Amino acid sequence: MEIHGAWLDHERNRFIWVLSYDGPESFQERNQQYRDSPKRAEMGLDPSLYLVDRVIREVTPVY
Description:
By secondary structure, the chain is of the alpha+beta class. The chain has a domain at 26-54. The chain contains two helices and two strands, in the order ββαα. It has helices at 27-36, 38-42, and strands at residues 2-9, 14-20. Strands 1-2 form a two-stranded antiparallel sheet. A hairpin with a 4-residue loop joins strand 1 (2-9) and strand 2 (14-20). The longest helix has 10 residues, at 27-36. It is flat, with a radius of gyration of 14 Å.
C-alpha cells in the first residue's frame, strides 16, 4: 500500500488519508493481511482505542 497524503478536516473533526494498492489481491484482502501481520501487532496499537468510525471509498484518478 502507498500513502499519497493525509489531511485534517477541523470543521468536521476528521482525519482523511488517501492510499492505494496495486497488487494481485483485492484491497480488502491486502488490508486484512496487514491487520493480521505480526509486524503490525508489534506496534501495539489498537485502532478501536482511537478510531470512532471508518469510511472507505474507492475512487478513480482523473489526472
